[in-house]
Amino acid sequence: MDRLQAMAAFVRVVENGSFSGAARQLGVGQPAISKTVAQLEERLQVRLLLRSTHGLTPTEAGLRFYERARLAIREADEAELEARGAGAGLSGRLRISAATTFARLLIVPRLPEFLNRHPELDMEVILDDRVIDLVSEGIDVALRMGTLPDSAAVARRIASGGRSVVATPGYLARAGVPRTPADLAGHEAVVYSQLSNGWSFRQGGTEASVVVRGRLRVSAAEGIRAAVLADLGLAVASDWMFGPELANGAVRRVLEDWTLPPIDLWAVFPTGRLASTKARAFADFVAGLVNGDGASAENADLGGRHSQRDHSQKA
């Protein structure tokens, strides 16, 4: 077997837990599979599998090799699909990652448009406020927000959104309406625990820095929304997070004559992989949604390269 076929055989062995199961799936004899794995171990000079009467178990090195081999096989399959389908609609599987609240409010409701345009495409959406490893999780493109620190990953800034201080009419009726950033010191804030609670406000040439405090700290954007809507306090949040409620009056902005730093939305692509046509097309689609111009052209070049490390994100 060639190198890629050997990887495929090893992946099947791990997933089946036996040489015989892998052999049945691949339509070859069990001795051929056993020999292939032995040759892999000899070439790599490391034990990949532990053999016992209970079956086969990958070693730590075997697990690492399995994850990388699985991704290599997937990339090879995608390369063939793209070559065969050049100029045709998108097909295969697209695996994306996004913050839960942002995706629930802005992305998932509009996915029918994208999927109807590409009937041969399947999507898997991983919703998580944490930053996950794109390579090990097999993510094609992640939507992340905020400032991206330096690293080797490739990112494209696709939108920039506003931030506001928001609260419900019920909370403001009880606690009063802050008129200046300094007034926030006398208010209960719902604090997002993964970000700094210090903020800089601007009004013309004036800058005011304030640290918001509150009895409630929340680790996810869904919790921020729920707490604010329960009249527990005000919050500094992206306009994306409270878009429906800002539109219907369930929450309102305060300190509207002061501005906060905007929040950037990035499409982040895995390190060491060429961004696929599917991933670029989806990034263009999201850019069109959040910028209010519908789905933008899906053949746009990958631009706005940026380096990034792991960071917290918030819808």
Characterise the protein shown here.
- The model is unreliable at 294-314 (pLDDT under 50).
- A 5-stranded mixed β-sheet has the order 4-3-5-14-6. Strands 12-7-13 form a 3-stranded antiparallel β-sheet. A two-stranded antiparallel ribbon has the order 1-2.
- The chain has helices at residues 3-16, 19-26, 30-44, 60-84, 100-107, 111-117, 169-175, 221-229, 243-248, 277-290; strands at 49-52, 55-58, 91-98, 120-127, 141-145, 154-161, 163-167, 190-192, 198-203, 206-211, 216-218, 235-238, 252-254, 263-269.
- β9 and β10 form a beta hairpin.
- The protein has 315 residues and is an alpha/beta fold.
Write the SSE topology.
Blueprint: H1 3-16, H2 19-26, H3 30-44, E1 49-52, E2 55-58, H4 60-84, E3 91-98, H5 100-107, H6 111-117, E4 120-127, E5 141-145, E6 154-161, E7 163-167, H7 169-175, E8 190-192, E9 198-203, E10 206-211, E11 216-218, H8 221-229, E12 235-238, H9 243-248, E13 252-254, E14 263-269, H10 277-290
Parallel strand pairs: 3-4, 3-5, 8-11
Antiparallel strand pairs: 1-2, 5-14, 6-14, 7-12, 7-13, 9-10
